[in-house]
Design goal:
The complex is a heterotrimer of chains A (305), B (282) and C (328). With 305 residues, chain A is mainly alpha-helical. Helices cover 78% and strands 0% of the residues of chain A. By secondary structure, chain B is an all-alpha fold. Chain B has 10 helices and no strands. In chain B, helix 3 packs antiparallel against helix 8. The chains are: A mainly alpha (305), B mainly alpha (282), C alpha/beta (328). The interface between A and B is large, with 51 and 46 residues.
Chain lengths: 305, 282, 328
């Protein structure tokens, strides 16, 4: 088990390294990174300082080394617009995104998994048909449209909920539903599919042959086996949430990392963009690592690979 | 050929009809639109769709904030979305397949490196990367396609690679190797035909995703620029007027929804028909 | 005369599909006594497994339904019982071993847990005694170091051992009837022999009535007392094992035995039975085997041959067999 965890940790670190390279290359695409990383009004002296700090007059691997070294020491560069460290700017807004994402994932997982289980235990029934249509529709709608429609319905027409900003539960609902919509559809479909697969298996048949009460069959055996792919989905949804948050936070003026990212790209504040991409991508990898470790605890077959 | 024709038996009607309409709009759009979608007519701003108070038969789906006929814009928008979607799918599919076959078939260190790259790609929040990349490349249709292509290849690569791994061990491939078939021949005549089914399913499903992604990028201002009638961009433009002209935000989104829904339904059906491994319970 | 444990009378199980009604089991009757093993043999798709599932009332709904007949377990008609009553019967009075040991066990739970489950469900045994009994069952099926194995997982064991564990689970509550559905098909020859020997041994010890479903005549010869031959959802011949091998009556049985490769017979072409098994949605009028029968007569295609007794527990459904006459 320890060996498995170490192996996965190593893989994660290597992938994070690759991401750092990719992010690094992102700003070297145009040939002159100073265009992207420095304010257009930078003085000659600023430019000289930057050239020295980033090694722009040196070969690319030296540049990369300076960049990586800086990151290992917590120096992710400074924002062009504000001049303050990008890491601080990121951390200020991270809390808001985390709050929204947690609410959204809680909402989508609870509803999605419940509908999925109910769908699977009575395939072809009313809940199943309804759930399947909803799930399919959910995965065919762009997040931004869901958000705007919700605003149209609940804020503009019905005047029930606020259109933007943070503040209590009422401010959390619309953005939460918007952000979680796609995931809810994904959870419903996957849970249904995983449960059906499991319920169709020989070992579940065996459980019924043993005369086990149906609740043991479903909640002890089927649920545990189906939880494996569902657990993996949690990890995958993280990526959707971070992407979805760009749009959701923009629509609802939510002061989080997503809105920061859009703003930063629009205003060409690339150090901020770089930092966001790197941290978010690495974060996703760690979430995946956790999911894999959890997986290995549930499934005894894993560490024998 | 017969195999393909037989595979089309029992195709679900609704998605096909919707897609046919969209394709027709895309192909014939510029010739059948009642008005020029890019021509402003500031006298006729904000006319609601036909059937609503203030609506007129001249503009069946009303006009937008610049007085442009909305129906015409939606129809031409189909062309944009379809083009972007198809090109993105082709681009991603091509790169993904090449990576998958190379990694899967050659194995070893090549596989390890390519797979780490694929994993890295899949772990990056795609919209964030898309926005960043689009910001760097600048607006425009071609840049949008490039961004989408770069974002999409990894999902193809992962799935197709596992197919290739399974195929590699099958007898007919081993026999081909033993009898001295060259690498190119094995890949083209033995491996590729057997992954085509999976590729088709992935492409159909990716098509819907690509359209949504293109619309999202345009919505955020990173895709095509005005006055191009792209559905996502139209929603963004209409957002300001949401309390007075609801059709400006609702209708383009509905078009995206229907197109993507049709692609997903078709993709699901194809998955059941072409790839028994993915069979979903009825 | 041994006490009858199971008596199946004219059971019919049909499946409603988009392309017609599939008559998977179409009027099957047989009985099994205490300490006796009945073999049900036939080609794939002839309805053997569905017969077993019908006895257990586990026919896949909603497409499948038992539409007729009676199933008497020690005199009680199982088809009249409620689902709750059936749950108490399954695993405790009737048990089943499935074909593929690699998929019969839940991969996420220990062996001990899975063997203990039926014991816990069906008896009021105290918790500590449950584990002791489970370990006893593992010992009974000759699993080495049973106490250590209680905390192992299925993937750590070979196919042969897993099948024995499935047998342990099936026998944990000392059922009156054990159904084994192709228990040896997924095993290699040596392991097959071990499993068959084990089942025979257990039957002698516990006196359990057994039904062994198989297409392997070798298994039949080693463990069965009586044999029922099934074709297209119906039983075409029933006899004790010596008679089936020595003096089979139904042309299908004869053809099946002829198609077995014989040791020491020299180089000769294997016999096959020409034609295909019939479509269960569209069974021919008359005898279902008629299209493929070498001795077909006119009456065979118009009238279904009812079961006739041709001596000492030997019944057959064939027009060729009058009382005392055989097809040869």
């Amino acid at each position: 088990m320890q060996r498995y965890i170490l192996k996965r940790l190593l893989e994660t670190l290597i992938t994070i390294w690759i991401i750092s390279v990719a992010v690094f290359m992102l700003t070297r695409l145009t040939g002159n990174p100073m265009d992207l990383l420095l304010s257009p009004m930078a003085s000659a002296q600023d430019q000289a300082v930057a050239t020295k700090a980033w090694g722009l007059d040196q070969p690319i691997y030296v540049q990369y080394w300076k960049y990586a070294y800086g990151m290992l020491h917590g120096n992710f560069g400074n924002s062009i617009y504000w001049g303050t460290p990008t890491l601080d700017i990121f951390l200020e807004r991270f809390g808001a995104t985390l709050q929204l994402a947690t609410f959204a994932i809680f909402l989508s997982a609870t509803i999605g998994i419940s509908v999925g289980v109910l769908s699977a235990t009575k395939p072809g029934g009313k809940i199943d048909s309804f759930g399947r249509v909803l799930a399919l529709a959910g995965q065919s709608m762009p997040t931004f449209w869901v958000g705007i429609m919700l605003v149209l319905l609940f804020s503009v027409s019905l005047r029930l909920l606020p259109t933007s900003g943070t503040g209590g539960l009422s401010h959390l609902i619309l953005p939460g539903i918007t952000l979680g919509w796609y995931s809810m559809a994904a959870f419903t479909r996957l849970t249904r599919s995983a449960m059906l697969d499991v319920l169709d298996s020989e070992y579940i048949k065996m459980c019924r042959i043993k005369g086990l009460p149906e609740r043991l069959v479903i909640w002890k055996h089927a649920a545990k086996n189906a939880s494996l792919p569902i657990l993996t989905l949690f990890g995958v949804q993280f990526v959707h949430f971070l992407s979805g948050s760009l749009v959701t936070e923009t629509i609802f003026a939510w002061p989080g990392v997503g809105r920061l990212a859009v703003w930063a790209v629009y205003n060409r504040d690339y150090p901020v963009v770089q930092t966001i991409v790197f941290i978010v991508a690495s974060g996703y990898l760690f979430v995946n690592l956790l999911v894999d470790i959890l997986y290995a605890y549930i499934d005894p077959r894993i560490h024998y690979e | 050929m017969i195999r393909i024709a037989r595979a089309f038996k029992g195709i679900p009607r609704i998605p096909i009809v919707i897609l046919a309409l969209v394709v027709a709009a895309a192909i014939f759009g510029p010739w059948i639109v009642p008005f020029n979608p890019e021509e402003s007519d500031l006298v006729n701003q904000f006319i609601p769709p036909f059937g609503m108070e203030g609506g007129s038969g001249a503009h069946l789906l009303g006009t937008d904030h610049l007085g442009r006929d909305f129906l015409s814009r939606l129809i031409v928008g189909a062309r944009i979305s379809l083009m972007v979607g198809a090109m993105a799918v082709f681009f991603s599919g091509f790169i993904g397949t090449v990576v998958a076959i190379t990694a899967g078939y050659l194995g070893g260190i090549v596989d390890a490196i390519l797979m780490r790259m694929t994993d890295a790609m899949l772990s990056m929040p795609y919209l964030l990367i898309g926005v960043a990349l689009a910001g760097i490349l600048g607006p425009g249709l071609l840049n949008l396609v490039i961004v989408l292509g770069v974002l999409g290849w990894a999902s193809y690569a992962r799935v197709i690679r596992s197919e290739v791994l399974k195929l590699k061990t099958l007898d007919f491939v081993v026999v081909a190797r033993i009898t001295g078939c060259g690498l190119g021949r094995i890949l083209w005549r033995h491996i590729f035909p057997n992954i085509v089914n999976t590729l088709i399913v992935l492409a159909t499903l990716h098509f819907g995703t690509a359209i949504i992604l293109a619309a999202s990028l345009s919505f955020l201002g990173m895709g095509v620029s005005p006055p191009t009638p792209e559905w996502g961009l139209m929603v963004a433009e209409g957002r300001e007027f949401i309390d007075s002209a609801w059709w400006l935000v609702t209708l383009p989104g509905l078009c995206i929804l229907l197109t993507c829904l049709a692609a997903n339904l078709l993709g699901d059906w194809l998955r059941q028909r072409l790839d028994p491994k993915f069979r979903e319970r009825a | 005369m041994t006490e009858t444990v199971l008596r199946v009378e004219d059971v019919k199980t049909h499946f409603v599909t988009g392309s017609g009604v599939v008559k998977a089991v179409d009027g099957v009757s047989f009985s099994v006594g205490k300490g006796e093993t009945l073999g049900i043999v036939g080609e794939s798709g002839c309805g053997k497994s569905m017969t077993a599932l019908s006895i257990l009332r586990m026919v896949p709904a909603p497409a499948g339904r038992i539409v007729g007949g009676k199933v008497f377990l020690c005199g009680e008609d199982l088809l009249q019982k409620s689902e709750k009553e059936m749950q108490t019967i399954r695993g405790s009075r009737i048990s089943m071993i499935l074909q593929d040991p690699m998929t019969s066990l839940d991969p996420l739970f220990t062996i001990g847990d899975q063997v203990a489950e039926p014991i816990r469900t069906h008896s009021k045994t105290h918790a500590l005694n449950v584990l002791a009994r489970a370990t006893e069952m593992l010992r009974l099926v000759k699993i080495p170091s049973p106490s250590a194995r209680m905390s192992s997982y299925p993937h750590q064991m070979s196919g042969g051992m897993r099948q024995r564990i499935v047998a342990a689970i099936a026998l944990a509550c000392e059922p009156e009837l054990l159904i084994a559905d192709e228990p040896t098909t997924s095993l290699d020859v040596t392991t097959q022999a071990q499993l068959i020997a084990l089942l025979k041994d257990i039957q002698q010890k516990l006196g359990v009535a057994m039904i062994v479903i198989t297409h392997d005549f070798g298994v039949i010869s080693r463990i069965c007392h009586r044999v029922a031959v099934m074709y297209a959802g119906r039983i075409v011949e029933t006899a004790d094992v010596q008679t089936v091998f020595g003096a089979p009556s139904h042309p299908y049985t004869i053809a099946l035995l002829k198609s077995l490769p014989r040791f020491g017979a020299g180089l000769e072409r294997l016999h096959t039975i020409g034609g295909q098994p019939p479509d269960l949605r569209d069974l021919p009028k008359g005898c279902s085997f008629a299209p493929r029968c070498a001795h077909v007569m006119d009456i065979c295609t118009t009238e279904f041959p009812s079961q006739r007794d041709i001596g000492a527990g030997h019944t057959v459904c064939c027009h060729l067999a009058g009382p005392g006459r055989s097809a040869q």
